[in-house]
Amino acid sequence: MKKEIGFGLIGSGGWGDVHARTLSQSANSKLVAICDLNLEQAKQSAAKYNISSVYNNVNEMLGDKDIDAVSIATPDFTHTELIIAALEAGKHVMVEKPMATTVEDCNRIISLRDKMGIKLMVNYSNRWKTPFIHVKKLISSGELGNLQLVNIKLNDTIFVPTKMLSWASQSNSLHFLGTHLVDLLRWVSGAEVNRVYSVSRSNLLKGMGIDTPDYFQSLLELNNGGTVYMENCWIIAESAPSVYEFKAEFIGSKTTVKVDISHHRMIEKYSPEGTAMLDVGEQYDLDGNPQGQVSIQHFIDCLINDKNPLVTAEDGLEATKVIVALEKSAQTKQPINL
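The structure corresponding to this sequence follows.
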């Protein structure tokens, strides 16, 4: 494999800028081109990172022979066709979550990836957050004991669906936020979800002309006997100190651990030996740059060294299976078995 990977970036919005910064700064990658339907926005991003090639047509960009891989940072509902186009062009793919919003599309993507023999990674970046790495070690080492109960929430202020995402009506807080938690739970616990029940309400946002639920409150049963209460909300007051709220509590038969990603990097640990506050280090560690970049660097390293990504297309499929089941449960008001 080459020692410098040429990348094309699809999507130059807020999260696309994180990709652009990482791909242009990494010693082993070169950002060759940027593509966005908003050509002026793409040009601004290209000027910022000194990129000469700008497109508003994906297929034209995919014809560039200097591009080995693409990074996709576009709205949720656009991912499938962009991934398919990139794979058909023989490009490795890194895509923001979710990989796709239907199980059928996930299976299409996996089949084409296998046919083409190239790499695909879904950017579930929370796997690289040091507090959750620490929790995973506590579980795998047995220090937590048998995982009994998880309380986990990832919520946004109302700024996100009303001002940040022009396409909020084409998604929901499960696909935008809940998918992160499902992947994190699978990775940390090593367990699979086998039964779900969810409740949603559509009041505030619908009254503002945004056709998406205000929140989902969900119960997930794991195949290791554990139970998860999961909350995903898009209507926290805009005056909140952070645009997002991310908290988790893992209750085991021996130890309980609390994590609050949205406010600090500390872990609260309660065990028979007593109470401890653990500083588990920065949430990002790639040359001191903002969070999200470490996972992108991981994908670059996988291409350089011909390794399989930590997060695979199969992981993307499993997360989408659970999210789709939660949507169905909220609609039918019935539990769903997976």
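Confidence is low (pLDDT under 50) at residues 284-290.
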